[in-house]
Design brief:
Elements: H1 2-37, H2 79-91, E1 96-106, H3 110-120, E2 128-135, E3 146-147, E4 153-158, E5 176-183, E6 186-187, H4 190-204, E7 209-210, E8 213-218, E9 224-227, E10 240-241, E11 245-249, H5 250-256, H6 261-273, H7 277-289, E12 294-297, E13 303-304, H8 317-332, E14 343-345, E15 348-350
Parallel strand pairs: 1-2, 1-5, 2-4, 7-12, 12-14
Antiparallel strand pairs: 3-4, 5-11, 6-13, 7-11, 8-9, 8-10, 14-15
């Protein structure tokens, strides 16, 4: 019995000795390899270059946040604005939906205004109910109201002050849901105007629907730039229809002119810079609906006199408009504009 115990002990010790020797051999091999390789090389110190985030121009009241800090607007997140817009829509439910009103803003351009009125009143436009001239010539008495040979009333509304916001007022005497916002130097031909209105009724009641598209494009740093939309693009992308010639639902004018805190700041900004009310209304419509505008072309191209004098002819116009895009984005807290590609031409729909 003792002999068996001693034999088992010797076998156990032999196995342990073999294990220890094998482990020592492996450890010695690792040490030899490390000695041959030498100590690990030290990575050189690398100084990363300083990166300056692009900054927007020094804008009074602007926080300096980079525009990329603002995400796209999601209408579902705007509970109170959507409630206010719903109330505005209900307010105008009783207005006519099968007729429209033209609101033409004018300032010291009598020839352009006369020419535009002459064309618009020369032919019967079945759905045109009234033309209201927003008279911003505060030092001049407007002509008297009259009715055209085709039976269309023309009313001159004297503005409280010379402000671009005056054209966007929801006039309490308007009788239609659809308002064609227009400058005194641009118009659709009469037959095309009727087509544009019927297109608004069918497809664009809650979009700005009109003739002059514009684009908002971010650069590599995310700063928004205003431009006339490149004709070289494979897709005719646009995100704004400016109010030189476009249909708007009364509810959008109501919201724009409301006591909403953001809209009060927007209107003050427009008055201070005497610019960008049309960009602001595009912000409003896309902010509330989550959709972009609708481009509508007639059989003939719209007429634009492009007079020598005007806001768009001043030096730095595009830069000022780009500044508006970035300023308004901060005011809204997000970028609401939506790119669209579809447009409608008289006789054809282009998707």
């Amino acid at each position: 019995m003792v002999a068996k115990y001693v034999a088992g002990l010797r076998a156990l010790l032999a196995r342990r000795i073999v294990t220890i020797v094998a482990a020592a051999f492996v450890l010695a091999s690792i040490v030899i390899i490390l000695v041959r390789l030498g100590p690990p090389a030290r990575l050189p110190d690398v100084k990363l270059p300083d990166i300056d985030m692009p900054k927007l121009p020094n804008i009074p009241g602007f926080s300096g946040l980079h525009p990329t800090h603002y995400e796209r607007c999601e209408p579902g997140n705007h509970t109170e604005p959507l409630k206010q817009w719903k109330e505005a829509r209900e307010k105008y439910d009783d207005l006519m939906g099968d007729k429209f009103t033209i609101a033409i803003q004018t300032y010291k351009r009598p020839k352009e205004l006369d020419d535009t009125l002459r064309v618009l009143l020369s032919e019967k436009i079945p759905s045109l109910l009234e033309i209201v001239v927003v008279w911003n010539n505060l030092d001049e008495t407007p002509p008297g109201n009259f009715k055209s040979e085709k039976g269309v009333p023309v009313r001159f509304r004297v503005s409280a002050r010379n402000s671009l916001n005056q054209k966007l007022l929801p006039d309490p005497d308007f009788k239609t849901k659809a308002i064609l916002l227009s400058d005194d130097d641009v118009y659709y031909k009469p037959q095309d105007l009727e087509f544009a209105f019927q297109t608004w009724r069918k497809f664009g009641q809650y979009r700005l629907t009109g003739a002059l598209p514009r684009c908002a494009t971010p650069d590599a740093q995310g700063v928004w730039g205003y431009n006339f939309c490149s004709k070289d693009d494979k897709e005719d992308v646009y995100s704004m229809i400016i109010t030189n010639l476009c249909f708007s639902h009364m509810s959008f004018l109501d919201y724009y002119s409301s006591n909403n805190t953001v809209m009060q700041k927007v209107r003050e900004y427009v008055d201070d810079h005497f610019n960008c009310e049309d960009i602001a209304l595009n912000f409003v419509t896309s902010y509330l609906t989550g959709t972009g505008p609708l481009l509508v072309n007639g059989r003939d191209r719209y007429v634009n006199y492009e007079p020598a004098q005007g806001i768009s002819k001043k030096p730095g116009h595009l830069e000022a408009r780009s500044k508006c895009l970035n300023d308004l984005t901060e005011m809204f807290g997000c970028m609401p504009l939506v790119n669209e590609t579809a447009h409608i031409e008289r006789g054809v729909i282009v998707l």
